[in-house]
Amino acid sequence: MADIIVPALQQAINLITSGDPEVYATVYRTIYVAGLGTLLACLWSIPIAVFLGLYNFRGKWVIKGIFNALMGIPTVALGLLLFLLFSRQGELGFMNLLFTLNGIAIGEAILVTPIIVSFTANALGSADSQLRDLARTLGASGFRTNLTLIRETIWSIVLSLTASFNRCFGELGIASLVGGSILGETRVLTTSIAIWTNFGDFSLAMAYGIILMAIVVVLALIVSLIERLRNEDMGLNRLIFWGGLGGR
Amino acid sequence: MSVRLQLTDIKKTYRAVTALNSVSLDMMGGKIIVLLGANGAGKSTLMRILAGLEDPDSGTIQFNNQTTDAKSIRRVSTLVFQKSVMFSLSVYGNLAYGLKIRGVPEGEISKRIAEALEAVRLSGFEKRRAKKLSGGEQQRVALARAFLLNSNVLLLDEPTANLDPNSAAIIEKAILAKKSSSRIIIMATHNLNQARRMADEIVHIHNGEIVEASAPEDFFENPKSEVTRKFINGELDF
After folding, report:
1. Which of A14-18, A163-167, B160-164 has the highest average model confidence (pLDDT)?
2. Per-residue pLDDT at A74 exceeds 60
3. Is B52 close to A135, i.e. CB distance below 8 A?
4. Alpha-carbon gap, residue A27 to A189, rounded angstroms
């Protein structure tokens, strides 16, 4: 094992420092699909989560249960389904999304929808009920009360988005089936790892793995740093989160 | 003109539990009405109904002789909770919340907040993070936040529970300073000494029913109800 990891570490450093455009392009493509996938998912997931988290209706537990269950959906199964839909004979073939980065991003967005919905709905649902009462007794309308509760749980929402981004970032099934891992076009970090493993170049595969892990760890550290600053510095809160939601 | 709040035959049940049963009260501005009662007597339920956070199952609430519903009563009342609740904002942000909703200009907000903080002896606390203040300080911020709205009905649910004597004294003094003919102050407590110090009228609630409503002297010296006499003497079995 050590005879693979040490050369892999050296190779990872070489890959990063060599300025190989394909390496940087692969990292860029990975960030692009993960970022776009998470952003797309937000468009529908956050409204669904707000509805599930803040409103009570009959059968709500069933819907929440379905979203919880969908968090464990096999990415290969979802990738296969999307491959069939996006293929030329598929129902969505006219959109020309097969073997494109946007196709991968849409797949990733569908994949992380249950994560964002479940985590955000649970965070909103578990917000201190007295906060809702407080907002109402201070004169807030129903809409303003909901905005306040979203602001109060914003950090949980940010964490769910971070988890979703990481899920997209390290996902293989959709990236390989929908993207096809075309060199210079749709190859991302995870499909690079798979390709080089299949070719028997474990050291290069491991090097790509190390780059992937390094980016995930750096992102996690940045999020932790922001959380720490948020706890200590009101100025940062104002700058990042509160300004747009009527806080100070 | 003095404000008036009348409750007539208010009933509230939660599943099989009767929280309030035929509660009727007539309250006038300029007075502090203290609700006394043991835990679970129905004080907090009555407070929540008066704050417009819950509807009674039956009965009517009239404010200045106009029948009102939960939404309308929220416009004239403000509740300070027993456990102080703070938004994840600065003290200023917490205090400004209700004023911004009411469209008060920013310059006016700053001025009023400075005055309100002075009233609860927290001048200069504007930029402090509210959730990081001590329990006593948070409760004083909660009180200042309620004072700022100048509501006609100020509801205080055990505002000094679990506070040190100094914080409690500051809060009591600030409450007394808010007495006005345009304001009814209703305070729930189970602290008999506090009731004696603060109340213009004491209402004793037991098992969801009003068993005694009288001036402090009569309440403590000559209670009409046997339940109240036992409550004052600490002999009441729950």
Report:
1. A163-167
2. yes
3. no
4. 6
